[in-house]
Amino acid sequence: MRDKRFIAEHRGGPLTKEQHRQLILWACKCVENVLPLFTKTIDARLINAIKIAKEWTINIASVGDARKASLDVIAVAKELTDPIDIAIARSAGHTVATAHMADHSLIAAEYALKAVKLADKSIDKERKWQDEKLSPDIVDLVLSTRGKQKIKVNTTDNN
Questions:
Q1: How would you label 25-47 residue by residue, b for 16+ Cβ within 10 Å and e otherwise?
Q2: pTM of the complete model
């Protein structure tokens, strides 16, 4: 069941537009931080998805634009074979999907952690970095939700 704290005010939930904006910007930071782990040339559709996510925060891109960019990134993930690259692509997809549903930001962060783990880097160090990038408006929301997430870093799952 979806955490109702991530439902936007305009849909009857408690999440303010500013909190929603902060969640997507945080997700952008999480995926951008792991982009250097990509094992080959980064597909332009991933970069475009991050760009659309940022544009959504300043009302240049619509939720429809974000949805299309998310679908494009799903296609990229299906084309990839390296598990690190797949995790990064999925992180980018969930980042831009945050425009539609704010709790996708949490999944974006988890896929970034999965990429770090697959690259034999420190998940603890990356999680600490992610936490430091949380704005005051969303820190309690994200940290209180962490233990309730459905997705967990799992190196045997390439999805």
A1: bbbbbbbebbbebbeeebbebbe
A2: 0.92
